UniProtKB/TrEMBL annotation, chain A:
Keywords: ATP synthesis, Cell membrane, CF(0), Hydrogen ion transport, Ion transport, Membrane, Transmembrane, Transmembrane helix, Transport
Gene: atpB
Record's protein name: ATP synthase subunit a
Organism in which the protein naturally occurs: Thermodesulfobacterium geofontis
Membrane topology per record: Multi-pass membrane protein
Task of the protein: Key component of the proton channel; it plays a direct role in the translocation of protons across the membrane.
UniProtKB/TrEMBL annotation, chain B:
Protein's name in the database: ATP synthase subunit c
Positions of transmembrane segments: 33-59, 80-108
Organism encoding this protein: Thermodesulfobacterium geofontis
Gene from which this protein is expressed: atpE
Role description: Key component of the F(0) channel; it plays a direct role in translocation across the membrane. A homomeric c-ring of between 10-14 subunits forms the central stalk rotor element with the F(1) delta and epsilon subunits. F(1)F(0) ATP synthase produces ATP from ADP in the presence of a proton or sodium gradient. F-type ATPases consist of two structural domains, F(1) containing the extramembraneous catalytic core and F(0) containing the membrane proton channel, linked together by a central stalk and a peripheral stalk. During catalysis, ATP synthesis in the catalytic domain of F(1) is coupled via a rotary mechanism of the central stalk subunits to proton translocation.
GO CC entries: plasma membrane; proton-transporting ATP synthase complex; proton-transporting two-sector ATPase complex, proton-transporting domain
Amino acid sequence: MEHPILFLCLILEKLGIPSGWIYYEEAAKYGTLAKVFAPHMVHSYFVCLLLIILALLGTRKKEFIPKGIQNFWEFTLESLYNYTKDNVPHGEGHSPNIVPFVYPLIVFFALYILFCNLLGLIPGFMSPTANINVTLGLTSITIVYYHLLGLRYKGLKYFKDFLGPIPWLFPLMLPAEIFSHVGRIISLSVRLFGNLVSKELLLGLLTMLAGKFFAPLPIMVLGVLVSFVQMLIFITLSMAYFAGAVEEHH
Amino acid sequence: MRKCLILGLASLAVLFLTNPVFAQEAANKLIIGFGIYSAIILSAGFAVGLAALGCGIGMGHATRGACEGIARNPELAGRLTVTMILGIALIESLTIYALVIALILLYANPVLPKFLAVVGLS
């Protein structure tokens, strides 16, 4: 099940760059360029370009009373800031303030995943997040970052969390803890990937079966919901992991 | 019940009648290949079906709890809805895992080539 037409890849192919699933599968023959311009990578670059253009448009002329696109950006960033502050320790009591470290990453995750998810709803484009490589990359950022946060705020005491609450029970708790940390990689990446891939498969199947009666339209409405909810799930779980690495457990 | 019995007996009779018609080796290959592929397709279907069964029960419980909460305290409707959607999406991802496993079984089965080589088919 692959996309028959991808406009961006077709344009790049006309320019002489080996871009497309055919070239990606035989990457040994076409060299690194086929891997760098694989379809999910091309759409990922497109999303990044879109976000940069939108951000530049928002900051072009700053006004005291925001209008139009500046208003949109301020609303988005402020609600994301409040959401981040609600979910991670922000310096009350004994907990450290990790909002400045976490907030830019959360904004990147939210905007990138949301735009990637919504891009797949346009016919002729695909979701970059419907590829396991992209979601694994996003997940590995989260995993590495929360281990680093834990090491930064707790030092070597961070590794004591792996031993469980009761000292003499650590041979039993250590494998369970390690397994739960490994399971996070799989669950976080496969959740996003599976949701998006199921949406795209359903759209493709319905287009093949009854495309001329507009059968995929209800699924597209559902797809908008899935895009927002999966973005919310991803950032919420990331924040839960960040908070869990920093907070004192017992 | 009786219909199923008649159908099963009829299919058994058809199998007994048709079996000697094939050459022995080709028949063996056909039966083994048919067994492998039908097992894969059956397991893929059952995986998604059973996962959806359990997740449906879980989602029903979650929705019931949220509805009761909203009925008792309608001012909290917005926050309860957001929490419910988050929980439902987390439950739904279990079905999605089963779907991913079913897709792997159907389209990118890692065991199938080894198994076919062991059996001697291709």
